[in-house]
Amino acid sequence: MRIVVLAGGIGGARFLRGLKSAVPEADITVIGNTGDDIHLFGLKVCPDLDTVMYTLGGGIHEEQGWGRSGETFAVKEELAAYGVGPEWFGLGDRDFATHIVRTQMISAGYPLSAVTEALCERWRPGVRLLPMSDDRVETHVLIDDPDADGGRKAVHFQEYWVRLRAQVPAHAVVPVGAEQAKPAPGVLEAIADADVILFPPSNPVVSVGTVLAVPGIREAVAGAAAPVVGLSPIVGAAPVRGMADKVLAAVGVESTAGAVARHYGADLLDGWLVDTVDADETAGVEAAGIRCRAVPLMMTDIEATARMAAEALALAEEVRA
Amino acid sequence: MRIVVLAGGIGGARFLRGLKSAVPEADITVIGNTGDDIHLFGLKVCPDLDTVMYTLGGGIHEEQGWGRSGETFAVKEELAAYGVGPEWFGLGDRDFATHIVRTQMISAGYPLSAVTEALCERWRPGVRLLPMSDDRVETHVLIDDPDADGGRKAVHFQEYWVRLRAQVPAHAVVPVGAEQAKPAPGVLEAIADADVILFPPSNPVVSVGTVLAVPGIREAVAGAAAPVVGLSPIVGAAPVRGMADKVLAAVGVESTAGAVARHYGADLLDGWLVDTVDADETAGVEAAGIRCRAVPLMMTDIEATARMAAEALALAEEVRA
């Protein structure tokens, strides 16, 4: 079974671990969000790709969900001693090595997809990890500018998410560069050849939404022969984790499991899973032309996540039939 | 008193610490060798400049003589896990931060002299540290090529020095790029305005020799109004530390305190200090037109080094008179 998953960071990575556990023999291609990539200290950092790679490769900081286990922070402390920031982005020493290797390869002319493949030779994540694009796409968030009366300014997604902790209103989310970006090699082919396409409970705006913003990807998913099934990142009107509700507001979408499904729409989604606490949302989703089931959606451990993945695959079979 | 010192790495740095102790009020400009700079992992590493900066700034690994105290090696271990080398160059986590800051500034368009000044804002070495040039100069060493019968190949100085530990014959030492290099801003002015110019017991070929290979610097030193006094890096026919004898052979110079003085020559040197064990060398040096004294030259501690520096300054006064 060939499965394609459009993934963001922590939610996507944890879902993938459950999916691999549910169907160990499946051929899984992950199309990873690169809109939250950022250049820090002259190095190219790809937080979502790395979270998937570290999580599936056994190197993740489990409690935190991102970054490396057993991490130390000598480099960051020294950079701060030089007065070089930002200090709000927590790069550890082990993590730095990944960004050093990536930056060196990119400087030598390798596209991000080739670099990601090379990094995965070490981590062996058990999936084929593709960046959505080899071109630079950078998600910016439009916020109020306290220095300009009534004015607004765009900040990098990481600044909004990590430094500001999404505590200020987001007026718009713009994947800068997406319009000019091309899908990375293999992305459209994987979608076309897939038996099932899954949207994990990743952020529908800044993770899955950014992947879909690369011209050609949305069209490929919408036109794919395979059933497309998603899992709600919103449970009981709140994000399962993270701050998805903040950026949903920016795109005018209510923070409910049903509203997210309707935001994706029936042209993309064939099936949608909501949590059992959101069972009353199923009728509205089905009315929008999307098959919907209510099942437990909390990724409390790998077993629970594997059951979620199995439910998603079962729903895919149901809509296929 | 304005003192200019042409310095390499460990020997130069330790001498400078003694000099500062001997004349705390002096205005010292250090013209640092950059011929042993190397790009590693996409980062620009300046071993000699950093050794001076760390030593005078209190961050040096005292026993080792180079690198940072309290160093850890998480980044290097991770790079090795990615299969990315070289492994023979021991960059620690703290040291990495210096190279990351430097590389980021150079990528942003700052010349090495401005970067060095910025790094020194943190370390406050108590001297003005100038790279010999903002242009790229890379010392290469010609060695036998075991893969080509009777053939030879050029390797980066660091590969010869650190990886091969100077254990293979060096047939030539070539400061690649030196002919096209210009002295960094302030270098020629400092030499012209100096009251004393000192050659510390640094390597006469790959440290002081490389500085002198930048067009304009040798001429400025030779033509300076100030007396020029050097200290022998060879004591009792052996290098005080390091492997200076290996590269002296490559330029056809005997490993004796007197031969090194004659290699520099009376057009550069006004005075020369040899160790007391080499007192029999003084006559030959003086015959070459260079005032010579025999004094203890082992930099066993800061006090002993300060006495050496004071002897060098006394000899400068003697030749000036």
UniProtKB/TrEMBL annotation, chains A, B:
One of its GO terms (molecular function) is transferase activity. Homodimer. Catalyzes the transfer of the phosphoenolpyruvate moiety from enoylpyruvoyl-2-diphospho-5'-guanosine (EPPG) to 7,8-didemethyl-8-hydroxy-5-deazariboflavin (FO) with the formation of dehydro coenzyme F420-0 and GMP. This is Phosphoenolpyruvate transferase. The keyword Magnesium applies. It comes from the Bacteria. CDD domains: CofD_like. Keywords: Magnesium, Transferase. It comes from Streptomyces luteireticuli. The gene is cofD. InterPro entries: CofD, CofD-like_dom_sf, FbiA/CofD. NCBIfam families: F420_cofD (TIGR01819). Its cofactor is Mg(2+).
